[in-house]
Design a protein that fits this description.
Length: about 300
């Protein structure tokens, strides 16, 4: 996982056959994923979500946010007898890693193994988490925004690939933001919180180099590999936060990110919800008010490339 070496290279290094290495990998990843997931990626309680929301406000200045959601394509070799099920819009075969991340770039929910041809929004609506949200069992009750009497629901923040709903915030379109400065401010504040998901995927690929190349394993084994990597990522983040007390990520800027794997999903969010428009507009008004504005937002949104 850490080196991304091929099975052939490992076979030469350890003097054992590729088929036996494959069997070892299947057993190890299955054991790691089953044992580590309850410890390192447990299902969050409402108390956990309240703590995550407080961290998002303190560190990324987005209130009532309980996670940043995003998805990435994990490149694989074409599984046998699957046709075009795993063939994505970038013209290669992949499975999808859909993840929700907290303010410290740690995974709090992952959905792994969806077909590469599917989009973020469709995968999310089929997940077990979405069913809990629909039944009203996941999010805490609405809460007042900091320094305000306005009460709004707790939300996830995502990009244009997700459908706008009361509990799912996505940015305004470029055309809308270009013609309305308040919407530009909202997009900046949302992107500031949402980038924790991008940071998490970047850290994951830099630590586990297996994501730089197509993975030559069965899809079931790839699912366990990705889940194990997410668990180990959280373990390393916990140790990093304990040691440094610093939530900022550290990238190796000289390292070129993977260009054929860990790429975003197609921007197709589907139909929006009327209540979602209402909640988003309330957040927009709050970010442009004296109670919710941050001192640097005007400077950041007015910057132009030179």
């Amino acid at each position: 996982m850490a080196t991304g070496e091929s099975l052939r290279s490992l076979a030469f290094s350890f003097r054992i056959s590729q088929s036996y290495i494959t069997r070892i990998l299947q057993l190890v990843f299955k054991s790691l994923s089953s044992r580590l997931t309850p410890i390192l990626i447990p299902s969050p309680s409402k108390e956990d979500l309240l703590r995550i929301s407080a961290e998002f406000w303190t560190r990324w200045n987005f209130p009532n946010c309980v996670g940043a959601i995003d998805g990435k394509h994990i490149r694989i070799f074409c599984p046998r007898k699957t046709g075009s099920l795993f063939f994505n819009y970038k013209d290669f075969f992949s499975i999808v890693l859909l993840a929700i991340v907290d303010a410290n770039c740690k995974f709090i929910y992952v959905d792994i193994g969806a077909y590469g041809k599917e989009g973020d929004s469709g995968i999310f609506t089929k997940s077990s988490l979405f069913k809990r949200i629909q039944q009203g069992e996941y999010f805490p009750d609405c809460a007042k925004l900091p320094n305000s009497e306005q009460s709004l629901p707790y939300v996830h923040v995502g990009d244009e690939a997700f459908r706008l709903e009361p509990h799912m915030m996505r940015p305004y379109t470029r055309g809308e933001a270009r013609n309305d400065y308040e919407k530009t401010i909202f997009n900046y504040r949302l992107s500031r919180a949402r980038r924790t998901s991008e940071n998490s995927f970047g850290l994951l690929s830099q630590i586990f180099r297996v994501f730089y190349t197509p993975i030559a394993l069965k899809t079931e084994t790839v699912d366990n590999l990705v889940l194990s990597a997410c668990c180990l990522h959280n373990l390393l983040r916990n140790r990093y936060l304990e040691t440094t007390n610093n939530y900022y990520y550290e990238f190796d800027n000289s390292e070129i990110p993977p260009s054929q794997s860990m790429i975003p999903l197609a921007r197709s969010g589907g139909y929006a919800n009327f209540d979602g428009f209402f909640v988003r507009d309330k957040f927009k008004c709050y970010f442009n008010s004296t109670q919710g504005a941050v001192p640097w937002q005007d400077q950041q949104t007015q910057q132009t490339d030179t």
